[in-house]
Amino acid sequence: MQDRYRVAEVGTATQLLIDDHVVDDVWMLRRVPEMPAKHPGNPLPITPSLYDAEERLFKAWYPVFAEDPEDDPGNEALYARAYAVSEDGFAWRKPELGIVEHAGSKRNNLIDTSAMKGEFGVALKDPHDPDPRKRYKGTIKRWYHHVDPDRRGGGRLFAAYSPDGIDWHLYPDERSIIRDSNDGNGCFLYDERIGRYVNFRRPTILAGPHGERPGDLGFPEVEGDDQGMCRHSEADDYLHRYLRTAPYVDTRAVIGATDHAHEGMGCNRRIARAESDDFVNWTEPEVIIRPDELDPPRLYGIDVVVCQGVYLGLLQVFNKWGLKGYLGDPQAADVIDVQLTFSRDGFHWERLANRPVFIPRGVIGSWDGGMIAGARMIEYGDEVRFYYSGHSGSHNAVQRTSGSGLATLAKDRFVARAASDELGVLITKPFRLEGDGLQINADAARGRIKVEVADPIGTPIPGLTVRDCRPIEGDGLRLPVTWNGDRTLRDVSGQVVRLRFYLYESKLYSFTIGGNGTT
């Protein structure tokens, strides 16, 4: 006989309540994002590329810029990198590596990437590769204009490896791993659940043929005043009648007055995903996030990590509106904001309904007032650190300053299920209880949370009801849930149950089934 219900996989892993993966129903609760707090010392002189938990060190590979334009015909960053380490992410040591001669001396922290002939980007420290020579993996971006001065735009991506993060080499056959790679090295990680490397970047196959204009394909192309662009009455009426959406933007407003006018219809500012077993042979990038009716026409990039079984992405939304630039109005064109997006499988992504900004830009005129153009997430102890890139001006500003900053959250507090002064309730899907204790990550300092255990059809289990639960009235990452009387979760361990959370003036971020009877 077929089961009457599906049993969710919970185990003893922490369950983020960012989505409905383990949630069956809610009543009078809202999903509320937490906003990371910016560090008062921003901008920072050095920001880490990764945290090495094995060595308990933050490690940074940071760019060294060309002193002489003749060294870099592309007039971009010199592709050497400097190496530094830190115990806390703030105080940095720059070891004398003795590799690269600079200003007549090798007493410096420069690593040699000159033989790679491209822009160096470190991706990860990889404990999964059996070859110790490939403990560190990175990518090299070779722009087309470094090979052909007449060809602008993108380039090709190559794989690099190192045994120690200092001595770097290209993979032996020196062939590109992803074709037509644009703007940077993308974001790489190793997903232990599928045993594969995953790359998030811009796609190589586009809806519009790259560089073509409508007139080139035999379609009408309106000439004249580009300021009076919107003639799409039917589409515009539908969007504004039925959807709360961003304003419609004509194609010419997107590309007409920018340095990317050569792109024509084909714009790869979307998010794609590729996979690899060996970091060299990759699947064709598949588009996974594209602008929808609530987005501007372009999504600039994304930085992704896996946290508690969830892909968390910091999505860069390129607010490309009209022909105006960022001239002091935070809502003007050409700025980039960061939104939080999340996925269970890396292919199907969600964002909160109102698309809130996750790391806000700074005040007008500040070093991060124009764009937040990328953020790297690092878990460290009981906090999550977001190291982000900020710019004072808009994307196409002639002059702007930039820097790297830090913003922090408490562990696992990305999105809360929140109740105000009306009682809210959340019930989980049925799951098999593995353990005999329960902890919650919650803020009930001004309110109250209680939990009851129910059977698969929602009936409270005697002794573990909401009336039996001792109220939680504190703020903590690991608050124990207990009940009055003799009954504990040990009595229902191994059974299929549901949890029903009652919230008043409080926030619930996650829960964890433990194994010590009370926590």
Word description of this protein:
By secondary structure, this protein is mainly β. The chain folds into three domains: 15-30 and 417-514, Jelly Rolls, CATH 2.60.120; 43-206, no CATH class; 232-267 and 291-412, no CATH class. The chain is built from three helices and 34 strands. It has helices spanning 144-147, 233-242, 251-255; strands spanning 15-16, 23-27, 30-33, 37-38, 50-52, 57-63, 81-86, 92-93, 110-111, 119-125, 136-143, 155-162, 169-170, 178-181, 187-191, 196-201, 271-276, 286-289, 298-307, 310-319, 335-343, 349-351, 357-359, 371-380, 383-391, 402-410, 415-419, 424-428, 431-432, 437-443, 448-454, 475-480, 496-504, 506-514. The strands form seven sheets. Strands 1, 3, 27, 30, 32 and 34 form a six-stranded antiparallel sheet that branches. Strands 2, 28, 29, 31 and 33 form a five-stranded antiparallel sheet that branches. Strands 5, 6, 7, 8 and 9 form a five-stranded antiparallel sheet that branches.
Q: What Rg do the Cα atoms give? A: 26 Å
Largest sheet: 6 strands, antiparallel
Supply the number of structural domains: 3
Parts with pLDDT < 50 across at least 5 consecutive residues: 68-78, 224-243, 256-262
Question: Helical segment tally?
Answer: 3
- Overall 3D shape: globular
In whole angstroms, the N-to-C terminal distance is 36 Å
Structural class label? mainly beta
What's the helical proportion of residues? under 10%
- What percent of residues are in strands? 35-45%
- Residue-averaged pLDDT, rounded? 84
Secondary structure: number of strands: 34
